Amino acid sequence: MVRFMQKTVVLDQDGLCELILKESHHATYMAHPGVQKMYANLKKKFFWACMKKDVAKFVAKCLECQLVKVEHGHPAGLLQPHNIPLSKWEEISMGLIVELPKTTKRHNSILVVVDKLTKSAHFIPVRDTYKAFEI
Q1: How far, rounded to the nearest angstrom, does the alpha carbon of residue 27 sit from its chain's CA centroid?
Q2: Minimal CA–CA distance to 46: which of 92, 87, 5?
Q3: Domain count, the chain
Q4: pLDDT digits (tens, 9 = 90+) for 91-115
Q5: Which has the closest alpha carbon to 65: 111, 93, 34?
Q6: β-pairing, 92-97 with 2-4?
Q7: What is the model's pTM?
Q8: Of 66, 124, 125, 132, which residue is 20 to 30 A from 43 by alpha carbon distance?
Q9: 54 and 9 belong to one structural domain
Q10: DSSP run (H or E) holding 64
Q11: Is 119 among the domain residues?
Q12: pLDDT in tens, 18-61
């Protein structure tokens, strides 16, 4: 065993690095630390070539860590509801359904107009060659 600057230099003989990773990751007092915490704890006592990469690979292979992975992000703010329209057809949304088979009147698209208050919809057959002023 070689010691340098109060760290044990590990030569990967007989899977010693793998054993150290397994023991430090699955120990009861460690409780599956993430890559950063596990690497910080190990680098206090041990050193080997490509140690951080080995720690990252080991944690990535741990099934339990992948199942309980926590998303680190800022919580969303308060919801901002939309204003409720006061009367029917005051606020509408429109959309087009295009590239349909042609009908006998040569319509191949549908203009969909939906009232936001009542959620009632009108489906208007149109041609994709219509201009806005023709509808």
Answers
A1: 30
A2: 5
A3: 2
A4: 999 999 999 999 999 999 999 999 9
A5: 34
A6: unpaired
A7: 0.47
A8: 66
A9: yes
A10: helix 63-67
A11: yes
A12: 888 888 877 766 677 778 888 888 888 887 888 888 888 888 88
Are the beta carbons of 122 and 115 closer than 8 angstroms?
no
Tokens of 112: 């969909």
Q: Kindly state whether residues 100 and 61 are assigned to the same domain.
A: no
How far apart (Å, rounded) are the C-alpha atoms in residues 124 and 111? 5
Contacts within 8 Å (CB) and 24+ apart, 79-84: 84/117
Length of the chain: 135
For helices 35-45 and 51-61, the axis angle rounded to 10 degrees is 140
Distance (Å, whole) CA 7 – CA 23: 17
Identify whether residues 60 and 7 lie together within a single domain.
Answer: yes
Residue 28: domain span: 2-67
What SS3 state is found at 115? strand
